[in-house]
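Work Package 3 (structural annotation) set out to generate three-dimensional models for the target panel prioritized at the project kickoff. During this period the team completed the workflow that converts sequence records into discrete structure tokens, so that structures can be stored uniformly alongside our sequence database. As a representative example, we reproduce one entry of 297 residues exactly as it appears in the project archive.
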Amino acid sequence: MGSPNTLPRARPTASGGYLPPMQRIEGRVAVVTGAASGIGRETARLLATRGCRVAIADVAEEGLASLAEELREAGRPCSSHVVDVADRERMARFAEEVVAEHERVHILVNNAGVALGDSIEELSWEDLDWLVGINFWGVLHGCKFFLPYLRREDEAHIVNLSSMFGFGGLPSQGPYCATKAAVRSLTETLHGELADSAIGVTSVHPGGIATNIVQNARFYDEEGRARAAEVFARRGRPPAEVAKRIVRAIERDQLRLVVCPEAHVFDWAKRLLPVSTQRLVRRLWSRVDPSSATTAL
């Protein structure tokens, strides 16, 4: 038997027929947000290596430019776009730019994401708007503005980056957990709504990955940031590992992709013992320094 997170090779539709997963990656047009670093950068690299024309987007212009230069020097067709995914009007223009440049869109990877480190009580509305704008609205903007173009294709796929924190709530990470849970639910909703289309969807739930999320997070404790960054650098798995799993999930039409042992443990604990798991989290939290919480992002 296969993994419970993997759909059959041919997925049933609402009308009783079957749609196959994506048959090929080569020659497709792939859009990747948050592509300047981390999982987004490695996913864009891998898709380009597999023969995709890629449209990469981020607010970090320097990292974006270096990736674009790398891909072009390797002979990989790409376009580079400075985009704040939280900006609705900019995201609408971004979709238009991609189609104007590449004529088509087959793969959308909504990867851009940020983190906060503080209690809900202490966080400012400005910081909450910042996080929700990128982590949730950014994903919804991508889905909403690119879906009309994805529907035109013979096959297409949407990948939305959630997190192991999308399975449950952790102190000092409330808004982050909430937005990642929302991304999971949004992806599952799309899975049902797109049942009669040629568009597959995947929700990705990584555990500890060595990305720049800590460096780019808004912390109120710089010592906590330093400790978390050290743990990420020492224990985090390489983003390229997640990128490989993402591309494989596209090819397999995998609805839920869980990466890293700690993510699998948290996922199954919440399924089997949801209340007991949260009680355990609360007990453990009382024994640790809250500023170290982001080490599992």
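Confidence is low (pLDDT under 50) at residues 1-9, 290-297.
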